[in-house]
């Protein structure tokens, strides 16, 4: 764990004294990005109400129910508002990312800001220089780290509440695939136990996230599964989603969230990829089981990164066909690492 907070006391002073505070998170915000950002925002607002969240682009509908959702500004739709807000911002948090580029179009305006910068993240090897850094790749999620961070601040315990615990639990739940990965250490469950004691409704949180899909989304999943390509000799399978099919199934952002995990349910498959066509690029998600590092794979070949077992990347100005062909051509070279 890398933790370079000089003192928790000085951080509390910075929080209380800041004119404005901005919490930011990564492109394509997921449950952990939104949950950790809102959990932290709701907490910090008790010390300094001038606290907002900015996301680089839109996030799925199934994440909009969280307490504090109205605090989020979307840089794609509210650029002027975020830029103006940043003029008076004295403290910026980077949550759930550690590479400037993951801030998308917010990156230049964030990096040129003279505000004090704090990073809280669980991805490998922080690439960004900030004033303070809490980075722990062993943590299940950034939400888990935000809870540790909050707990360690020298503040009265009553500042934690059910809404904050709800957001943080949602972050942990989604980043661990409902506790099926990234959650082998006892610490995660001790944090979850403490969050449950704040009276969160865990079953309802599950339902709000996972039982909230449109019928079209289910049909889209069926379509992607029926076109899945399986390579038993490489313990690999992949699925694709073209722009044409997105139109056909009235695709909305977030509809394909989690699709990449399905091939891993096949016996003998431990490497999975999902390719989605965008207007300007092919966005890829990778997942693995065991020791095969999809973080390294994404870094080496697809301009991306992430975690050992969950990563992503993208290829600009290319077609689904050429990117999947490249992917398949790489399999013989990594075959022995996929176990
Ligand atoms: P997902 O497949 O859910 O989009 O992303 C899985 C993980 O990979 C996330 O932790 C995310 O931060 C990381 N990731 C996804 N896309 C990219 C990318 O283009 N670049 C980097 N560096 N990380 C990515
Ligand atoms: Mn995360």
Strands, helices and their partners?
Elements: E1 2-3, H1 8-17, E2 20-25, H2 31-44, E3 51-55, E4 72-74, H3 79-87, E5 89-95, H4 107-111, E6 116-121, E7 132-135, H5 142-152, H6 162-175, H7 186-196, H8 202-210, H9 215-226, E8 229-231, E9 236-241, H10 243-248, E10 271-277, E11 281-288, H11 294-301, E12 305-306, E13 310-316, H12 320-334
Parallel strand pairs: 2-3, 2-5, 3-4, 5-6, 6-7, 9-10
Antiparallel strand pairs: 1-7, 8-9, 10-11, 11-13, 12-13
Bound molecules: guanosine-5'-monophosphate (5GP) and manganese (II) ion.
The site of guanosine-5'-monophosphate has 16 residues, from strand 12 and strand 13.
Strand content: 15-25%
Name the CATH homologous superfamily of the largest domain: inorganic pyrophosphatase (n-terminal core)
- Output the helix-strand order: EHEHEEHEHEEHHHHHEEHEEHEEH
> Are any ligands bound, and if so which?
guanosine-5'-monophosphate, manganese (II) ion
Major sheet: arrangement of strands: 1-7-6-5-2-3-4
The fold-level CATH name of the largest domain is inorganic pyrophosphatase (n-terminal core)
Indicate the low-confidence ranges by residue numbers. none
Q: Helical residue percent?
A: 25-40%
Number of strands: 13
- In the CATH hierarchy, what is the architecture of the largest domain at level 2? Alpha-Beta Complex
End-to-end distance? 28 Å
* Structure class: alpha/beta
Tally of helical runs = 12
Please describe the biggest sheet, giving its number of strands, its sense, and whether it closes into a barrel.
7 strands, mixed
Q: Specify the overall morphology.
A: globular
Overall residue-averaged pLDDT value: 95
Count of individual domains = 2
Q: In angstroms, what is the radius of gyration?
A: 20 Å
CATH class of the largest domain: Alpha Beta
